[in-house]
Write a structure and sequence with these properties.
Elements lengths: L3 E4 L2 E4 L4 E7 L8 E7 L6 E7 L4 E3 L7 E6 L4 E6 L8 E9 L1 E4 L3 E6 L1
Parallel strand pairs: 2-11
Antiparallel strand pairs: 1-3, 3-8, 4-5, 4-9, 5-6, 7-8, 9-10, 9-11
Length: 114
């Protein structure tokens, strides 16, 4: 199996940027699809972006044009670059892969202040 560890969250002002990392415990080369989710207080977890091994990306409408997902195979790490952050982006962000079952990281808190 694989373990995922997110990092890079923090407090940022609206309009600012953060880059989240999702480090895997083993090679990610064979992992077909990974996803970034987020969960705001009192809300359901929602899909933010997906990234396939072929480099195809998809984004939620709410983050299109502002967020970019990428991967570094050498570091077994995916990234979520978040620009032009808004207060409504405040949430705990999780990375996810499916390998026989859903695997989640522990999450990283992103807080955007006005």
């Amino acid at each position: 199996q694989v373990q995922l560890v997110e990092s890079g969250g923090g407090l940022v002002q609206a309009g600012g940027s953060l880059r989240l990392s999702c480090a895997a415990s083993r090679s990610i080369f064979s992992i077909n699809t990974m996803a970034w989710y987020r969960q705001a207080p009192g809300k359901q977890r929602e899909l933010v972006a997906t990234f396939t091994s072929g480099g195809i990306t998809n984004y939620a409408d709410s983050v299109k044009g502002r967020f970019t997902v990428s991967r570094d195979n050498a570091k077994n790490t995916w990234y979520l670059q978040m620009n032009s952050l808004k207060t409504e982006d405040t949430a705990v962000y999780y990375c996810n892969v499916y390998i026989s079952s859903n695997i989640w990281g522990q999450g990283t808190q992103v807080t955007v202040s006005s």
